[in-house]
Design goal:
The complex is a heterodimer. By secondary structure, chain A is mostly beta strands. Helices cover 0% and strands 50% of the residues of chain A. In chain B, strands 2, 4, 5, 6, 9, 10 and 11 form a seven-stranded mixed sheet that branches. In chain B, strands 1-3-8-7 form a four-stranded antiparallel sheet, with no helix packed on it. Classes of the chains: A mainly beta, B mainly beta. Chains A and B meet through β5, β6 and β11 of A and β5 and β10 of B.
Chain lengths: 116, 116
């Protein structure tokens, strides 16, 4: 069965500093990995995804993520945090090799707080 | 292109009642998924429909049901409401293609259900 873990409930970072939101996954084969962001009282918005190819994926709003197969990680990063980046971030995984059409599994979410 | 719409946005019900929530996906999208979001449990997958067929179901009791119409619009129904059903219910659409599991999901703003 596939699973995804976000080990930090909350991450605090000063504005202008680099940020990292961690995600690790468990699947039987090569995963499809996604990051989403949720602002208060809104639905989730897609940020970026890894399907295949280059391990460094660039997405919306200056975010990027690095796929590391050996560490089964897909950490979200941004070189310089903005106060407006404060939100809830979700990592998600789908295992395309587990047979059938598998649902997407979401992590528990990490609240990012960017301090002015 | 219009995004995913959900109606109603807010709903207050009492225990024992039933409720129907509606979701209109992005035009051309045939996959619709439903999620329950609560502070304690995070984002929990309810079910997914594709071309009017349920092809995945989460671990929810039979009180939770859904359907999809020929125009891809979807409804979910919760019968005999319990206090614990209070949550944000999110609908997401993706992919006009059956096997495109690598496509990201587009979320609606959600329906906030409060059960008194």
């Amino acid at each position: 069965a596939q699973s995804v873990a976000q080990p930090e409930d909350q991450v605090n970072v000063a504005e202008g500093n680099p940020l990292t939101v961690k995600c690790t996954y468990s699947v039987s084969g090569n995963p499809y990995l996604f990051w989403y962001v949720q602002y208060p009282n809104r639905g989730l918005q897609f940020l970026l995804k890894y399907i295949t190819g280059d391990n460094l994926v660039k997405g919306s709003y200056g975010f990027e993520a690095e796929f590391n197969k050996s560490q089964t990680s897909f950490h979200l990063k941004k070189p310089s945090a903005l106060v407006s980046d404060s939100a809830l971030y979700f990592c998600a995984v789908r295992d395309p090799n587990s047979g059938g059409y598998q649902k997407v599994t979401f992590g528990t979410g990490t609240k990012l707080q960017v301090i002015p | 292109k219009a995004g995913v719409t959900q109606t109603p946005r807010y709903l207050i019900k009492t225990r024992g009642q039933q409720v129907t929530l509606s979701c209109s996906p992005i035009s051309g999208h045939r996959s619709v998924s439903w999620y329950q979001q609560t502070p304690g449990q995070g984002l929990q997958f309810l079910f997914e429909y594709f071309s009017e067929t349920q092809r995945n179901k989460g671990n929810f009791p039979g009180r939770f049901s859904g359907r999809q119409f020929s125009n891809s619009r979807s409804e979910m129904n919760v019968s005999t409401l319990e206090l614990g059903d209070s949550a944000l219910y999110l609908c997401a659409s993706s992919s006009p293609w059956e096997t495109s599991g690598y496509n990201e999901q587009f979320f609606g703003p959600g329906t906030r259900l409060t059960v008194l």
